[in-house]
Amino acid sequence: MAATTDGTQHEDQRTGAPAPPPGRRPGPVALAVSLLGELLITAGLVLGLFVVYSLWWTNVLADRKADREADKVRDTWSHQETAPGGPGALDTKKGIGFLHVPAMRNGEVLVEKGTSEGVLNNGVAGYYTDPVKATLPTSGKTGNFTLAAHRDGHGAKFHNIDKLRDGDPIVFETKDKWYVYKVYSILPETSKYNVQVLTPVPAESGRKKAGHYITLTTCTPVFTSRYRYVVWGELVRVDPVDSKRTVPRELR
Predict the structure, then answer these.
(1) How many angstroms separate the CA atoms of 118 and 35, rounded?
(2) Whether residue 8 has pLDDT greater than 50
(3) Contact (CB, 8 A) for 46 and 106
(4) Do 99 and 147 form a contact (C-beta atoms < 8 A)?
(5) Which residues are known catalytic residues?
(6) What are the extents of the domains in the chain?
(7) Compositional bias (Basic and acidic residues) spans (predicted)?
């Protein structure tokens, strides 16, 4: 039934069913809430896509590029009988060797010159040239082989740095030598401006005399760059690379 102009009701002539009451338009508050909800959903989707890009897709791209550069380095080694001045004389822009850290479960990591984002974003570890210059193990000199890599995104090569413990091996592979280090000190958090952790004799690690050290640095906490996580190791031996490139026992 439907209401007539005089207040009486009648049935819908086409269907015989009562006519629906006139619809109400949503008020301004309801419209604002609806619009806000749609905006929040859109923002959530955009943020989700950004997280996927930052934490997954950048890893894929960086790993692909790092693998290509690693293949170039190994190809150079295989075609080069001797490297004038030793492995450290190779083109450092293309990589000087590979870092192996079993506790981090990240395979081999190509090491290149520099620690800028332009270098580290390629899914590699970089050795410091500033503010304190790293001492390359291939030089034979005492000092600190200081390295950095991303903890999240762009390959995230040092993502599992917190898995390292005292005594764990860190191995640096060059064309003709394996440099085997052992972790002896860990600093879970320090200022990103603390350059003392990079000095040739890292006193903050407990060492007071010159030696052959390695230092791994990355951002902490996870997904931030507020502080730095630092791991120190000390050289325990150097093994020659044989014709089969047999890995040291620490990597078996």
Answers:
(1) 41
(2) no
(3) no
(4) yes
(5) 150, 219
(6) 53-81+90-251
(7) 68-78
